[in-house]
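HUMAN:
Just now I want nothing more than another pair of eyes on a protein record. I would be glad if you read both lines and explained how they fit together. I have put the entry right below:
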Amino acid sequence: MTARPVLYSFRRCPYAMRARLALLSSGMECEIREVRLSAKPASMLRASPKATVPVFVLPDHTVVDESLDIMCWVLGQHDPQHWLFNIRHDLIAQNDGPFKYHLDRYKYATRYQSNPDCHRAEALKILENIDKILQEGFFLHGARPGLTDAAIAPFVRQFAATDPDWFASVPLVRLQEWLQAFLTSPLLGRAMCRLDPWQEGDAPILLH
């Protein structure tokens, strides 16, 4: 049997989510191992001591454990949807830096002992900029979704879900439409398939 790459993942983690989206877009056959964060498998910890998902292990034991690196490597092998065209590195950096900072302190205010309203307002300023960009095209990638959309949308999804009623009232029409298109896409449906946590000796489950 031909060895396949293995992805250690956690369903709700936005970093792991975007890795799964890229894998599905590429069509690469991959074994997926759902991780219970309170009991991370020893094989994942041996592969990546940083102990956070996603972790992508190639058949030659090469390890890629940063989500954007996984996306780019996978799509570099096969990119039938042209996700690597017109990547907005500035928007992804903004998402992974300032937006994620404020998202965490809004969503997990008790953990961070932060003012959630203040951080929600700062995050909203970033989303207002994205809304303006989306007025030029339905997706951040252009006429069709691409890596930039897949890299950012899981985090906006998390922000929206923190207070859905409030988010629905925000007057960012294009952003709302863009997020709804993402939430209802067949690709996301496949990426969010529920799996039992993986244990050593389990039969392989393919991400497809």
Remarks:
- The CA atoms of residues 105 and 114 lie 6 Å apart.
- The mean pLDDT is 96.
- The first strand starts at residue 6 and ends at 9.
- The two ends are 18 Å apart (CA to CA).
